[in-house]
Write the structure tokens for this entry.
Amino acid sequence: MPRPLSHIRVLDLSRVLAWPWASQNLADLAAEVLKIERPGAGDDTRSWGPPFLKDRDGKETRESAYFLSVNRGKKSVTLDIAKPEGQRIARALAGKCDVLLENYKVGGLAKYGLAYEDLRKTNPRIIYCSITGFGQSGPSAHRPGYDFIFQGMGGLMSITGERDGEPGGGPQKVGIAVTDVLAGMYASLAITAAIAHRERTGVGQYIDLALFDAVVALGATQILNYFTSGKIPGRYGNAHANVVPYEVFATADGHLILAVGNDSQFASFCKIAGRPELAADSRYASMPGRITNRATLIPLLREILRERQSARWLTELEAGNVPCGPISNYKEVFEDPQVRHRGLKVEIPHPSGVPCPTVASPMRFSENPVEYKLPPPLLGQDTREVLGNVLGLRQEELDQLAALRII
């Protein structure tokens, strides 16, 4: 059975996180991804450790955990595009590819003859996706950008963190580079949509994707609250602006999440808690009432939740169909029976002689499932194979390119 993108070849001129996240998604869908890296150094994140993958003798390799997390399924081709011959080879590869993915500064690839306008002349079917901080136009287009900055500028930190006046109050970033991951996901979707368009029309296109746009789009539910009310959303800590109770509560021995989404669930919670009168109280019987009277209800619930241990609460609330859950660290996540059942940890054979762990793709297909055959590549391990097979370069030509440090 052909896999979704097994007919697609991607030239990946990207590095770090957002862009490799996108190309890894394409690789998971069976696209052939040619990852172009600097000779001798490679993707910046190869050195972003420790931790590094350990070999069979327990010694650290040069493969950082960060790099391993977003580069499975790809082929590494070392190529110095700062040199004219390297540029010629890159253009030749682009002519043999369906998609090009890059994250250079605005206009940065034009000096190498690798801009979209250059490549479309010889390959009008190419889908060229540029991911930058602020996009290709506008007063900030030429500014560099980083996830942390975008979480602040894009409004995310204005609604993330404990409420002002509370202990630890103030803006807080999300614990992962969520802007990069989100932009990578949007890029994956945009590229596959462009592939579908090309299959109907035969025409490629240019995709301008900005991290700043992505993080603003992420805030749509809170932004619509602002658009419709004129009230600027604030930080609620672990609480929810439009649902009560919906936050973290301390128990007798830890914490749990209580996420009551409707009135019947609240009544069920009150019954399990031995406080049915709260569900009958006109102040708390409906969601609008609970939101309006949050300041009096939440302290009552805090007292109630402290009366029992987390495990007992979780068992009783789940039996009563009240949404709840633990707060797990990543060790506990991968001990969860559901996580084990879904096979979310995958190990791929690696050239270091030990299995390389990876986190499974959440995409599940009934007809052509994701396969995990290629581990994140060693730097330049596929250079000669790719240039030989795709461009037809002979061994002596490859030797000469290596001697000139172009590959």
About this structure: The first strand starts at residue 9 and ends at 13.
